[in-house]
Amino acid sequence: QVQLVESGGASVQPGGSLRLSCAVSGGGFALYNLGWYRQAPGKQRDFVARITYTGNTNYTDSVKGRFTVVRDNAARTVGLQMNNLKPEDTAVYYCNAFHVYRRANYWGRGTQVTVSS
Q1: For residue range 33-56, what is the model confidence (pLDDT) as tens digits?
Q2: Using an 8 Å Cβ cutoff, are 24 and 36 in contact?
Q3: Is 51 helix (H, G, I), strand (E, B) or coil?
């Protein structure tokens, strides 16, 4: 059974930094595309960043240059380094894993990030 567990959410002031982490249990980690999504109150869940099983990355425009997604295949984790945080980054952040061969999609339960002065 595949499980994703996020950690690292917190409350920070504008301009601050946070690092989110997602631990993935279940086989075939090296063949997952791993991503981060976020959902603000009253809004839909939106894409933030992704790192493919080959190491390619892409980001939504609003976080380019501020966020960095990394993966550690040995530790079975995906991280999201978030710098220069803004109030509009406030949301619940969800980890996503998509197995490229099984075509199976998995989600974590989310971690809250609040950016406020």
Answers
A1: 999 999 999 999 999 999 999 999
A2: no
A3: strand
